[in-house]
Amino acid sequence: MFGLSKLFSGKSAEKEPLLDALAAYRSSAFAIGIEAQWVKEITINTDKSFKVKLELPFAGKGELAQIGEFVSNKLSVSVSIDAEVSLPNQCCFKQIKQIVLVASGKGGVGKSTTAVNLASALEQEGAKVGILDADIYGPSIPLLLGLQGAEPKTLDNKTLLPFEAHNLKAQSIGFLVPSDDATVWRGPMASGALNQLMNETDWGELDYLIVDMPPGTGDIQLTMSQKVPASGAVIITTPQDLALADAQKGIAMFNKVNIPVLGLIENMSYFLCGHCGEPNHVFGKDGAVKLAHRHGVPVLANIPLAIEIRESSEQGQVISRDNAASISATYKNAARVLASSLHYQQTQNSSVEILITED
Ligand code: ADP
């Protein structure tokens, strides 16, 4: 820790227990607590309660109430916490700070649904987020965001304006080429189209750009991954053995092109029984955890097979925005862990170990 007394001159003695309590907070996303340099302002009220203003270096605002409660309990005074998200000023590409590829070994596992919900969850956690639909075999992001029928627009005939929906900026490869032509795509052609969309879209400033990759681990996916300056990748799988075998190929593909795999998300992980409320592991259990453990990566989330997820997708609604839906918290937690592991990976050159259970 550096000169706290300098940073908070005057009543530093009163503030130190607060900083210690913040540093002691632990969760999957805040795996090493709240660092002193994130604390921008501390106000001590006349009743001795505290008001703290943080600047978080990753999307994580959704945990502030929990952090406040932890610190309040530790100090036995009321502590309210507010924060802004401000990622370090290093850009991955133009004014985009982090690019995350969302991939899957096979199609139909819920990759696009998860990509949209993760993007929205990052936005709700306080970040500026865009989503780029690069799935040449079935571009579905416009549909998932309720943008069907939308036509790309340009102001100067050189750059495309991204679409805006649900507080996300969005662009799709489907606007360039109709999906039924997918069979003619080759690696260089697909990566060229992806580059064109990245370069020629006026994204403005973004904290995170989520790229919904085409499913599979062949030449096309490999070439596309190589051409994008990605900070990391997330692999979506279902619990079936075949999907897991393909997810493993996905990990191998990203290792080959030196893109860190930030974690696996097991989608359609279980089904909650409408009668007894017990989780029913229809497609098998613990497969993703075992795979993750073998490769030293975390499982970011286990998403249930839920009718509401499909229904809201079909209506162009993003279920992680619906606070009444219990699944919303699961997506937001996954987004925080993803954002924090990207941060720690870049600042400490290693990922923080999170939620890896034994075989
Ligand atoms: P992919 O991008 O892997 O091809 P999609 O995201 O298009 O898969 O999802 C395929 C289908 O499965 C869609 O109808 C979607 O609504 C549905 N789906 C995805 N995830 C879930 C889930 N967790 N529960 C219920 N339906 C889901």
What characteristics describe this protein?
Rossmann fold, 15 strands, GMP Synthetase, Chain A, domain 3, 359 residues, binds adenosine-5'-diphosphate, eight-stranded mixed beta sheet
Structure write-up:
- The structure is a single chain.
- By secondary structure, the protein is an alpha/beta fold.
- The protein has 2 domains: 4-85, GMP Synthetase, Chain A, domain 3, CATH 3.30.300; 96-350, P-loop containing nucleotide triphosphate hydrolases (Rossmann fold).
- It is built from 11 helices and 15 strands.
- An 8-stranded mixed beta sheet has the order 8-9-5-10-4-11-12-15, with helices on both faces. The chain has a 3-stranded mixed beta sheet with strand order 1-2-3.
- α3 links the parallel β2 (50-56) and β3 (79-85).
- α2 crosses α3 (64-75), α6 packs parallel to α7 (219-227) and α8 packs parallel to α9.
- It is globular, with a radius of gyration of 21 Å.
- The two termini are 37 Å apart.
- Residues 1-10 and 350-359 have low confidence and may be disordered.
- Adenosine-5'-diphosphate is lined by residues 104, 107-113, 140, 215, 267-268, 303, 305-306, 309-310, 313.
SSE layout and pairings?
Blueprint: H1 4-7, H2 12-24, E1 39-44, E2 50-56, H3 64-75, E3 79-85, E4 96-104, H4 111-124, E5 129-133, H5 141-144, E6 153-154, E7 160-161, E8 163-165, E9 168-172, H6 187-200, E10 206-212, H7 219-227, E11 232-237, H8 241-256, E12 261-266, E13 271-272, E14 279-280, H9 287-295, E15 299-302, H10 307-314, H11 326-348
Parallel strand pairs: 2-3, 4-10, 4-11, 5-9, 5-10, 11-12, 12-15
Antiparallel strand pairs: 1-2, 6-7, 8-9, 13-14
Helix pairs in contact: 2-3, 4-11, 6-7, 8-9
Bound molecules: adenosine-5'-diphosphate (ADP).
Adenosine-5'-diphosphate binds next to α4 and α10.
Function: Binds and transfers iron-sulfur (Fe-S) clusters to target apoproteins. Can hydrolyze ATP.
Subunit structure: Homodimer.
Binding site for ATP: 105-112
